[in-house]
Amino acid sequence: MSGHGQEHLRILLRRGAIQRRIRELGGQITKDFKGQRVHLIGVLKGASIFLSDLIRQIHLEVSLDFMAVSSYGHDKQSSGQVRLTKDLDTSIEGLNVILVEDILDTGLTLSYIQRVLMQRRPRVLRIAALLDKPERRIKEVKADYIGFQIPNEFVVGYGLDYAERYRNLKDVCILSMPPK
Ligand code: IMP
Ligand code: MG
Questions:
Q1: Active site includes 105?
Q2: At 136, is the secondary structure helix, strand, or coil?
Q3: pLDDT by residue (tens digit) across 121-169?
Q4: Where are the domains of the chain?
Q5: Residue 93 gets which letter from DSSP?
Q6: What is the value of pTM for the model shown?
Q7: Which CATH number fits domain 15-151: 3.30.70.141, 3.40.50.720, 3.40.50.2020, 3.30.70.2750?
Q8: Is 23 helix (H, G, I), strand (E, B) or coil?
Q9: Which of 7, 14, 40, 79 could bond to 73 as cystine, CB 3.0-4.6 Å?
Q10: pLDDT tens, residue by residue, 10-19
Q11: 3-state secondary structure of 12
C-alpha cells in the first residue's frame, strides 16, 4: 500500500483478523460481566473506531462516554505530560467502567487516565486496548483486554493516526518514513 508522499505503508494486521479478535474480546467482556451493566469510556480520537466495533460485540446493557487527553510533544512520541482536554459527561461512581484505548505504548497516557478515573470511585475499572507495544513500556499498566501485542513499530490505521492522517485505513499498517 502506498502512503502520502514518500511515506510507506505495510499491512501488519488485516481487517478480518481485527474483527475476529474484537468478537473474542466482546465475548470475554460479555462473560465477565454477565447480568451486569458496563460503561465504556473511549479515549478520543484514536479509540473511536475500535470502540464502535467493540461495543456491538458486547451483549449486555451498555452505556458510553468519551474523554480526550493530549500529551504534549512530538507526533510520534508522547512526552509523558498528559492533560485532560475533554472530560466525561456523567459520573462513573459505582459503575463497571471499561476504558477503551487504541494502543498501550509507554503507558504514560493510560496510567494518567487510570489515576484520574479511580478518584471518581467506579465499582471496577478495566482497560481494553486494541494494541500493545510491551517493549516501549515506561509506566507499568495492567490491561485486562488486549487485542494484539505488536512489535516496536509505528502503526497507523483503524483509528490510529500520524499527524491526524490514516485513521480511516481498514487495516493496521506499519508506517515508514523516508530518511531525513
Ligand atoms: P503512551 O502514553 O505512550 O502509552 O501513548 C499512547 C498514545 O500514543 C496512544 O493513544 C496513541 O495516540 C499514541 N501512539 C503510541 N504509539 C502509536 C503508534 O504506533 N501509532 C499511532 N499512535 C501511537
Ligand atoms: Mg494519537
A1: yes
A2: helix
A3: 999 999 999 999 999 999 999 999 999 999 999 999 999 999 999 999 9
A4: 15-151
A5: T
A6: 0.94
A7: 3.40.50.2020
A8: helix
A9: 79
A10: 999 999 999 9
A11: strand
* Protein residue closest via CA to atom 19 of ligand 1: 154
pLDDT at 71: 79
- Find where cell 506499519 sits: 174
Q: For the residues 59-78, what does the mean pLDDT come to?
A: 83
**What is the sign of the dihedral through the CA atoms of 30, 167, 79 and 72?**
negative
| Residue of 65, 89, 105, 161 marked active site | 105
Ligand 1 binding pocket mutation candidate from 83, 105, 109, 174 (most atoms within 8 A of CB): 105
Dihedral of alpha carbons 111, 72, 161, 67, sign:
positive
CB atoms within 10 A of CB 62: 18
